[in-house]
Request: fold
Amino acid sequence: MRPLLLSMLACAVLCLVGVHPARGVDGDFKEAMRVRRLLHAEELSLGAMPRARLQDPPVAETVLLPVSRGFSQRSTGLCWAYATLSALETIHLVRHPDEPDVELSRRAMQYYTMEDRYRRSIKQVNTYIREGGIVLDALRLIQSNGIVSFDDYADVADAYGYANISGMIAGAPTFTDKIIALYEGLDIVYAAPPTQTHVPVLAAAEPNAAFTPADVGELARFVLGRDVWQSYTPSSAKTGFHAHPDPDARWENVSWHMPHGEFPGRIRQALMAGFPVVISIRNHALLVYGADYDADGSPITYYIKDSYPSYYYITDAEYLHANFWEMTTVKL
Reply:
C-alpha cells in the first residue's frame, strides 16, 4: 500500500496564515532540535536497538512497541497531529501484527485543522488561526471528519505563500460568503481530501485481499476503536481534572493532574498494555514507543519517535522526566 504518490498541483500553492511567534517556516524544526539537545538524544534507525552501553543499573526488561515509518512535518506546526497518527498506527501494529500496515494522511489532518480553525473564527468562537493543537483535538477531528489513508491523498503543504485565506474571508460580506471563501481558499492551498479511502481487510475476513475501498468514516472507526484517551499533567499543587496546560488547547479540554512521581509508572502501564504515549516537551510533541527497565521496574531509557528526521532516538529516562510537562495516552 505504498505506491509512489502522484504529484499534485495544489502542493505548490501555499497558504498565508497567522503563525505563533515561536514557530513558522523553520521554527518547529528548531524547537524539535532544542528538545533533542535537552534529551541528549541518541539516534536510531527504524527497528534498530541502541548500541551496547555499560548500564548502571543494567537493563532487566525492554518493552518495545512496533512503530510505523517516519514522516516529516516540514514547516508546519502539526507535531501533535503527527504524534497522534503515529500512535494510532502503532496501536494497529500491536493489535494486528500480521496484517497490512496502516499509514494515515498527515495532510488530511492539516486540512481538517485549518478548516476547524477558520470556521470557529467565522462563527466568532475565537480568532485562533494556527496549526498548533493537542492529541485530544486530533482525535476529535478524526472522529468528526474521518481520516484518509496516506497513499490516497498527499503530503502536507507548507503553509506559507500565495493564497491569503484570512484575507479572502475578511473580504466576504456575509456569513455565507465567508464560508464559501473559506472553502475556495482551502481548495487552492490543500485541495479537499477525498471522501473515499481504503481500510485493511483482516485475514480472517478475506484472506486474499489486503485493502478494500471504504469511506473516510469507516477508516476512522477502524483506527480509533473504542479506546478512550486522557491527558495527564504533573502537578505538586493539585490533583484531579483541571484545565489543559497547553496554550493550544481549547478551553473545554481538561487534563488529569497528578504528582510527578506517578508518571514513570503510568507510562510503563501504557506501554505494557500496548499503548504508546504522546509527550510534550517545550513546544513539541513526541511519541514514546518503548522503554528499558531495571530489575526494580524503574525506567532507564525511553524510545522516541519524532516528526523530523532522523525520526527515532533514545533518551535517558531522567532527561525526559525532567523536561516533559504533559502526556496523553489511552486510559486504562
Notes: Residues 9-330 form a domain with the Cathepsin B; Chain A fold (CATH 3.90.70.10). The mean pLDDT is 86.
